[in-house]
Amino acid sequence: MPRSEAIRKIVAAQPNDTFARYGLAMALRGEGDLDGARAEFAELERRAPDYVPQYLMHVQLLAQMERRDEARAVGERGMAAARRKGDGHAADEIEQALARLAGED
User: Fold this and answer.
1) Cα distances (angstroms) measured from residue 91 to each of 20, 37, 78, 81, 99
2) Per residue of the chain (105 residues), what is the pLDDT tens digit?
3) Distance CA 24, CA 11 (A)
4) Residue 86, Cβ neighbours under 10 Å: how many?
5) What is the Cα–Cα distance from 44 to 17, expressed in whole angstroms?
6) Longest Cα pair distance anywhere in the chain, in angstroms?
7) How far apart (Å, rounded) are the C-alpha atoms in residues 81 and 68?
8) What structural domains does the chain harbor?
């Protein structure tokens, strides 16, 4: 059974478990299901917009998918969330990812 299926069962039982939903998004990405991972990151952001760890991975995924405009928008929201939480390190990491993205344009 793929790792994502085991995590999907946890998410089904506990849909607001941010760590499980993040794990599902990462597992799907690792399995090559980029659209599925994107959908899970979007749902995670909808349910838990202050869960800062999701944003950098979501930006990187969208960049990988060549969805640069979406990546920028997610990154901006992520930097705002990180600043609200007082997480300057995460804000800096997201800002660096956006700078790399801008360099690819």
Assistant:
1) 23, 22, 7, 8, 12
2) 789 999 999 999 999 999 999 999 999 999 999 999 999 999 999 999 999 999 999 999 999 999 999 999 999 999 999 999 999 999 999 999 999 988 876
3) 8
4) 9
5) 9
6) 42
7) 20
8) 3-104 (1.25.40.10)
Location of structure tokens 């969330």:
81
Q: Are 4 and 28 in contact, with CB atoms under 8 Å apart? A: yes
0.70 exceeded by pTM: yes
CA distances from 82 to 38, 52, 76 (A): 20, 6, 10
Q: Tell me the C-alpha distance between 48 and 19, whole Å.
A: 10
Task: Output the six-digit token pair for 60.
Answer: 């990187």
Residue 21, CB-side half-sphere exposure with 13 Å CA sphere: 23
